[in-house]
């Protein structure tokens, strides 16, 4: 259920019942404004995602240093606010070690993200401009934007109908980008922070500004802006606060999405309650019967929705596992192996990355002589033998048929050839049930600066062919070009 469908009703209800117990109002905002997520649980990561955590002991994040209550930096340069608490929760659920990259302004954070000094940037809306260098997670938090004016300003039903009107907007924000494109009738005054824009409206130097509903509810009275009011809503201009991740880090984006999906509505509500503790004492309503009834109804809806969302989440996890896992060997399959991202990451950070492509020698004879059921047993037994003799950080997948691909992180060509020879020797001396001894051949290739995932696997496949041609039961490689 969308918040915006009920904004007008909610706005009038909040104004006339503005001093009802906070848990009811915020519970309603959460239910109407955000998606009902699954109940609290750790994020379930794929093999590739767990490997990413092993290779990346720290993940650098940029934030908006001056956007409370959503987020900001305190005097000790510590991340605080609603998003900060959500990020801490997300890190706990995924195992990510998030390290703050401190900046002084939002513009500095944007530039640091563009330069790659931070892999991700928190709490921002997706826009075409930002999509030039970022990919985005699902929303971490959703909140509508509203128009703030002085008390004497009439209600605004249509922004496009305004003429000779000035608006204060944060420089570099998505609202500034969207308003410049969508409302050429407005004169935009760019500010360094949102409080500056609100102050300009209070002083009568500009006609209006845009604030999120959560921010407006918290700051208009507490900051002493008694001459300001909410004068309208902005359908289609909601804050869908996401985490932006630089384009090369798709696996990181996937990990963050799993963490976001695992945050329960109860956890989000608890964080909102900590930061949105509004206290106003101008009038008191003593009949709370309607509020309690509404709260009970809300609680029933949340419990019911959470139950079905939990079941849906479990089904989605199961389908995701089936889509990315080989049914026979239970290894990652091609769909679950994002080799393109691993190659681009190795090139970006100039880290060594190599692959081994194995193939069972004369496997057709196994199927012909013993049948396909025994052939399947050999594939399962071989997959476990290879997996048990790899490092935990390495990834093995069933590439197709009797072929297996191994990704070796932080490993150069010479080290990978040595590993391939050890694995071939392990197989050579292993006794397989029903069949006895079998052998495998391998081709090794290391990522080069001009490689794509396709050229890397093609080179490994060519080396595998040479190993077969040279007599099988061996590894072949081609030294990297200068």
From TrEMBL:
One of its GO terms (biological process) is cell adhesion involved in single-species biofilm formation. Its EC number is 2.7.7.65. Keywords: Membrane, Transmembrane, Transmembrane helix. GO terms for cellular component: plasma membrane. The chain crosses the membrane at residues 290-309. The keyword rRNA-binding does not apply. It catalyses: 2 GTP = 3',3'-c-di-GMP + 2 diphosphate. Pfam families: GGDEF, SBP_bac_3. Its cofactor is Mg(2+). Coiled coil: none annotated. Residues 351-480 form the GGDEF domain. It is an enzyme of class 2 (transferase). The keyword Transmembrane helix applies. GO terms for molecular function: diguanylate cyclase activity. PROSITE patterns: GGDEF. This is diguanylate cyclase.
């Amino acid at each position: 259920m969308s918040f915006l469908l009920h904004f007008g009703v909610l706005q009038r209800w909040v104004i006339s019942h503005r001093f009802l117990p906070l848990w009811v109002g915020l519970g309603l905002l959460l239910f109407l404004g955000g998606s009902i997520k699954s109940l609290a649980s750790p994020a379930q990561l794929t093999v590739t995602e767990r490997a990413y955590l092993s290779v990346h002991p720290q993940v650098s994040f940029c934030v908006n240093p001056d956007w409370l209550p959503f987020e900001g930096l305190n005097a000790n340069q510590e991340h605080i606010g609603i998003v900060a608490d959500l990020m801490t929760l997300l890190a706990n659920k995924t195992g990510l070690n998030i390290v703050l990259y401190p900046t002084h302004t939002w513009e500095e954070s944007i530039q640091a993200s563009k330069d790659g000094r931070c892999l991700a940037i928190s709490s921002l809306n997706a826009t075409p401009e930002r999509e030039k260098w970022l990919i985005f997670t699902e929303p971490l938090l959703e909140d509508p934007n509203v128009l703030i004016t002085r008390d004497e300003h009439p209600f605004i039903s249509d922004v496009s109908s305004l003429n000779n009107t000035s608006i204060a907007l944060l420089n570099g924000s998505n609202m500034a980008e969207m308003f410049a494109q969508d409302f050429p009738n407005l004169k935009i005054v760019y500010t360094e922070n949102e409080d500056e824009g609100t102050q300009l409206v209070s002083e009568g130097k500009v006609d209006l500004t845009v604030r999120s509903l959560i921010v407006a509810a918290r700051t208009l009275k507490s900051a002493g802006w008694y001459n300001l009011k909410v004068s309208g809503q902005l359908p289609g201009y909601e804050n869908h606060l996401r985490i932006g991740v630089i384009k090369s880090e798709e696996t990181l984006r996937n990990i963050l999405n799993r963490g976001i999906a695992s945050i329960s509505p109860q956890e989000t509500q608890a964080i909102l309650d900590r930061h949105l503790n509004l206290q106003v004492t101008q009038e008191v309503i003593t009949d709370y019967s309607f509020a309690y009834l509404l709260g009970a109804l809300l609680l029933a809806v949340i419990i019911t929705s959470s139950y079905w969302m939990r079941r849906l989440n479990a089904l989605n996890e199961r389908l995701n596992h089936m889509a990315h896992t080989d049914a026979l060997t239970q290894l990652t399959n091609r769909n679950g192996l994002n080799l393109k991202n691993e190659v681009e990451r190795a090139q970006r950070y100039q880290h060594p990355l190599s692959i081994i492509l194995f193939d069972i020698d004369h496997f057709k004879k196994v199927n012909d002589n013993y049948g396909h059921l025994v052939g399947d047993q050999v594939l399962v037994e071989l997959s476990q033998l290879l997996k048990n003799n790899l490092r935990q950080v390495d990834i093995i997948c069933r590439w197709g048929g009797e072929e297996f691909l191994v990704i070796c992180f932080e490993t150069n060509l010479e080290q990978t050839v040595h590993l391939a020879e050890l694995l071939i020797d392990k197989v050579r001396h292993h006794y397989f049930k029903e069949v006895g001894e079998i052998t495998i051949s391998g081709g090794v290739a290391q990522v080069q600066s001009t490689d794509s995932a396709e050229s890397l696997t093609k080179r490994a496949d060519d080396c595998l062919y040479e190993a077969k041609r040279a007599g099988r039961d061996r590894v072949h490689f081609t030294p990297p070009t200068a």
